[in-house]
Amino acid sequence: MDRVMIRARTSLLPYLLLAPSLLFLAALFLVPLVQTVGLSLTENGIASLANYQRMVTDLNFLPALRNTFVLVIVVVPVQVIFALGMSMMLQKLSLGRDLVLWIWTIPLGVSDLAAGLVWLAILQDRGYLNSALMGLGIIDGPTPWLTYETPVALFFSVVAAEIWRATAIVLVILVAGLQLIPKEYAEAAEVFGARPWTIFRRITLPLLRSSLQTALILRTVLAFEVFAVVYAIGGRNFPVLVGEAFVWQNDNQNTGVAAAYAVLIVAISLASTVFYLRALRTPPEQQP
Amino acid sequence: MRPRMKTALAAILLSSALAAALPAIAQEEIDFLSTQLRPIEEAQKVRDTILKDFDGSVNYLVEEPPQFDVRMRAEGQAGKRTIDLVGALHGELQPLAATELDAIDDVAAKLADRGIPANLMELGKLGTGKQVYVPWMQATFIMVARKEALEYLPQGADINKLTYEQLAAWAKAISDKTGQRVLGFPAGPKGLMHRFFQGYLYPSYTGGVVTPFKSSEAEAMWKEFKNLWQYVNPNSTSYDFMQDPLLSEEVWIAFDHVARVKEALVEAPDDFVTFPAPAGPKGRGYMPVIAGLAIPKNAPDRAAAAALIEYLTKPETQVTTAQEVGFFPVVKAELPADLSPGIKLIADAVAKTQGADDAVAALLPVGLADKGGEFNKIYLDTFQRIVLRGETPRTVLDEEGKALADIMAATKAPCWQPDKPSQGACPVN
After folding, report:
1. Which of B379, B382, B384, B381 is nearest to B368 (CA)?
2. Are the beta carbons of B262 and B272 closer than 8 angstroms?
3. CA-CA distance, A108 to A106, in Å (whole number)?
4. Strand order across the B183-184 sheet
5. Using CB atoms, which residue from A146, A236, A251 is nearest to B373?
6. How far apart are CA A54 and CA A256, in angstroms?
7. Distance (Å, rounded) from C-alpha A118 to C-alpha A110?
8. How many CB atoms within 10 Å of residue B326?
9. Contacts of A252 in chain B (CB under 8 A)
10. Which residues does chain A have within 8 Å of residue B235's beta carbon, measured at their own beta carbons?
11. Can you list the alpha helix ranges (DSSP code H) found in B243-301?
């Protein structure tokens, strides 16, 4: 009798421990999500696709969609390559490794908007960049980089700020992943005369696959949600999807269209997650 | 009970007793919610200086306009009012008049000796026949120029009677001689550029705002404005407040709300001149901005709110308000001769604007309720498409005109000044 009770209790225990977080997520994520989908599909309480129609016919929709995707396509690979390089370099450090890692992850502790404002201070007409260029005699006077007349410079400014701000999260995941790889594999390969590049390509990278998957999913989803940095640097000159959701909710006071944008962003994020889960799947027999 | 449990229980009891007592304390404070004077420095001036001599304690709260509207309606629906007094713009109070705001004819009656102009008091009725708000303070938009720009002013142009043509010539002259584009507009994400189109450009060129939206005059206006834009600093689409680029000399000539250039004028009054916005073929369009005080229905302490309205409309308080935050009196009050030079620059330009022979007053939109944001979007989108993206004005005006007509039809908002009065929704011809 007692034994049955104990067994029942131990089998219930994991669910009881999970319950608070599940309830929390359901109340603060699932319910609002369902409400948002509902809002986006109704106008004045009647079911309709009018909000989606307004969204796609708006003058900023295509630029926002294009900007967001191009930003993700440019930023995420660069960040992964940087983070891979940085984490490999960290592996080779014996002295001061923690200090270097600590400095590299400082941007993680800076809020998005603050990071955007820092880059604005660097890149605006009378910012640090122009002061430096003027000091070097490369330009004669304040040169604008962030206006609607300089879309390419503006785009690369946003890219620079995003790379600075969010490479650290990829780095942290990859550093953790690298530490999980047993040293013996690389040592064995070295014994057989493998060069460092071969070891990296044939051993490290395949074993890092699941960490890369996590990092890519996290980073891509967050990149699709980019907002504060762009808002600080580009304002209305560089529309992105989340920015448009904000403008429709806050300035245009149309919650329906804002909800349609939100649903679109969720759909894109989910699709990219599914893509990575499939593309970078680690077969069970290869899992460490 | 173990001693530790006892202590814990006592602590809980004590804190819940305190929590119960708090609302009782808070009730003695008057909760004054405002959509104006929101920036922290201005809010602090309201608390420390403007409300200082009021007999009673006031909790001055601020809220952005969309959230203000939501909060007022939510409190009304919940039947639990926490706010005693609200201060907001004419156009922000209008949509709340029917359901959320109390009639305050009794309060207005006590203010008969204040000398509030009859037409302002009439605005406060919002067309309901009852006093919905009492005018609180007023402001408008002005032009500010750095003094170094004056030498390039076109010959024969009077800065106080400038036309848009002369403004373009002026900016062109500076651009030709210095190679810099120094004309600036607040077209950033939080700028008030839409008010420039609604209160200045459209009334000056077409004599209206909604009805002549896609008229041939409007088409000519956009072409001219696009021509002017080539001398405008390209950072304009990032400017929210013109005081910063004016101070940093990035911009020499700017248009903005008085409250958004005040800092520059107060900080360096000797560097600037102020003047009314330019005139077009139909006159000198300008937008008076009126903020009013209203009492919500079922306010917790209506008598105290009424007392606060009386205090805020006293001539002395009104003068303090002008000195501290640059909003001008709605009552009969002499601004002191020793007004700070920056505020005096604003006061002069406001007086010249209101007193101009060719002035065309254009009120803030009325009756658009929650479509106010989308109404502004029409003007900003039209600007973006014609001026920034180079689309054909006629096509854009026809398309955006249709969207404008849809908004007017959905809200059934009748025309407001300077459009001619309409039966039913204001037409877009």
Report:
1. B379
2. no
3. 5
4. B183-184, B253-257, B141-146, B272-275
5. A251
6. 10
7. 10
8. 26
9. 373-374, 376-377
10. 124-125, 144, 146-147
11. 243-247, 262-267
CA B424 from centre of chain: 26
Length of chain A: 288
Which residues are B70's β-sheet partners?
none
CA gap A166, A159 in Å, rounded: 11
A1 burial level (CB within 10 Å; 0-12, 13-18, 19+): exposed
Dist. CA A129–CA A126, nearest whole Å:
8
Question: Contact B204/B418 with Cβ under 8 angstroms?
Answer: no
Rg (CA), chain A: 24
Cβ distance of B373 and A254 shorter than 8 Å: yes
On the CB side of A193, CA atoms within 13 Å amount to 0
**The one-letter amino acid at B384:** Q
Query: Whose structure tokens read 């629906």?
Result: B77
Task: Name B225's Cβ contacts closer than 8 Å, sequence gap at least 6.
Answer: B164, B201, B387
- For residue B269, cis peptide bond before it (omega within 30 degrees of 0): no
**A62, A250, A252, best to mutate vs chain B, most B CBs in 10 Å:** A252
Q: Pick from B70, B37, B10: which is nearest to B325 by CA?
A: B37
Q: Going along B151-303, which residue ranges are E strands?
A: 183-184, 253-257, 272-275, 284-286, 289-294
Helix (H, G, I), strand (E, B) or coil at B88: strand
Give the CB-side neighbour count of residue B389, counting CA atoms within 13 A: 15
DSSP B341-400: HHHHHHHHHHHHHHH-TTEEE-PPP-S-GGGHHHHHHHHHHHHIIIIIS---HHHHHHHH
What does pTM read for this prediction? 0.83
Chain A residues with CB under 8 Å of B374 CB are 252-254
Residues A21-38 as b or e (16 or more Cβ within 10 Å = b) = eeeeeeeeeeeeeeebee
Separation CA B87–CA A90 (nearest Å):
59
Task: Compute the distance between CA of residue B134 and CA of residue B292 in angstroms, rounded to an integer.
Answer: 5
Q: pLDDT in tens for each of the 429 residues of chain B?
A: 455 555 555 555 555 554 544 444 444 789 999 999 998 888 999 999 999 999 989 999 999 887 898 899 999 999 999 999 999 998 889 888 888 999 999 999 999 888 888 878 888 888 788 999 999 999 999 999 999 999 999 999 999 999 999 999 999 999 999 999 999 999 999 899 999 999 999 999 999 999 999 999 999 999 999 999 999 999 999 999 999 999 999 999 999 999 899 989 999 999 999 999 999 999 999 998 999 999 999 999 999 999 999 999 999 999 999 888 888 888 887 888 778 899 889 988 988 888 888 989 898 887 787 788 899 999 999 999 999 999 999 999 999 999 999 999 998 988 988 999 888 899 998
A147-152: long-range pairs with CB below 8 Å, 24+? A147/A237, A147/B234, A147/B235, A147/B237, A147/B238, A148/A237, A148/B234, A148/B237, A148/B388, A149/B234, A150/B234, A151/A237, A151/A238
The contacts of residue B287 (CB under 8 Å, 6+ apart) are B140, B141, B195, B198, B199, B200, B361, B362, B363, B364
Phi and psi at residue B254, to the nearest 5°: -140, 155
Helix (H, G, I), strand (E, B) or coil at B83: coil
Bridge pairing between strands B141-146 and B253-257: antiparallel
Residue A178 to residue A172: CA distance in whole angstroms: 10
Structure tokens at B324: 């501290």
State the CB neighbour count (10 A cutoff) for residue A20: 9
Task: Say if the Cβ atoms of A253 and B66 lie within 8 Å.
Answer: yes
